[in-house]
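User: Show me a protein chain along with its predicted structure.
Assistant: Here is one chain, sequence first, then structure tokens.
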Amino acid sequence: MTSSFLPGTPVVPRGAIALLDPATGAVLRVIALQYNPDTLTRTLQPQGVGAEAGERSEALRLKGPAHETVKVDVELNATDQLADPSGADADVVARFGLLPVLAALDQLVNPTAGALLGQDSAARSGAFEIAPLESPLTVFVWSRDRVVPVRITEFTVTEEAFDAQLHPIRAKVSLGMRILTVDDLGFTHRGGALFLAHQRRREQLAALYRSARPGMTILGTPPGGS
């Protein structure tokens, strides 16, 4: 499959951040990454029980899914979008530069004005405890094989160039995300179901890896073996 804008250029599926209604699963918004980042850094911190329990018999036990974080740098460039006047957002980009997409990303870590006013109204009416409204479920999509619920933990925007109206036209967004698991969301939450599906897919992919024979490694024959 090739691009009609640049003949001969293959269309590469883009990563994205999707917002879902946590109750219905309806897709509320999809923020497609303009360019796929060159690197993606994942850090996994196992949840072992051996060191905490102080018992040797627990050293090989895991009490839950690893705490996994993901970091990516997203590049945005309004010039490339303006080069294709047939693009759906070309007129918006021409008027506001990258402000709309940056505002959509900002909303990932901010409650709406309506939610803030609702909390203030409840406080003024004498509510003893005010529970914030549940935010949309944020999902990081990185190929069909990696679709995971996340919480944004780090968010840095560097605006690098501006138009005559001081609208940013080139920017870099550094995102840090923590993958949410059933420990965070529970098994009945839609995000928990997404994590379980991701874990099952990871197990399926791991099963495709053909293990090396012990003799091919420094292990050789395990102690006690024949």
